[in-house]
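ok here's 14-3-3 domain-containing protein, seq below lol
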Amino acid sequence: MVEFMEKVVKAVDTEELTVEERNLLSVAYKNVVGAHRASWRVISSIEQKEESCGNEDHVALIKVYPEKIEAELSKICDGILKLLESHLIPSSTAAESKVFYLKMKGDYHRYLAEFKTDAERKEAAERTLLAYKSAQDIALAELAPTHPIRLGLALKFSVFYYEILNSPDCACNLAKQAFDVAISELDTLAEESYKDSTLIMQLLRDNLTLWTSDISVFFVHEYFLVFFLDVLQSIICFIVLFDWLEDARDEIKEAPKG
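and the structure came out like this:
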């Protein structure tokens, strides 16, 4: 299906895809890349487990598979990113299309950032951020807060902050703002997009619940760590004081009387 949709995009050249064609393109690539991402995560998890157990022979055998999947993922992502740059983004005229394709561009750079390392990971993350911000600027100005594409962008952008940039505060703020604004205008939601919009809003809320609980656990751990260190310091001071008193008492006993 990916090959077929590539031909469709190149055939229309400078013309904008219809909504149906656009969605088919998105689903085609999402299915292919989704299967590869899931496989990579499973195998990487097994590799980490074997490393922690010290099974070097197993690790050497397993390493071949993530590398193969990464090569395939890179090829898939590079393919759609080239289509976006050469055909899809330049030919888009409607705000909805522009946001859709820029979000898509950010998504596939984010998928690269998930497994790339060092300079390549940094570059992929920077390109993701640039694409999402460009999409966000248009979405905030042109699309309703309840529009499923605008909500979908907020969902993906917040996941990027949380998973790639390790910035839970930014992730929570972005997701909460998108959810709150959409809730306040829920009565204006178009009937044809009601199901899609409410589903994405539910995902935003689920992520917020998960992320805020993670932050709470972190602060609880930090609190108990500080508390433990304070108690430990007090115990050490008490031991030092006790030893000093013992030494002082011995000196008094040994001192000549009279």
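fwiw Residues 217-229 have pLDDT under 50 and may be disordered. kinda neat tbh
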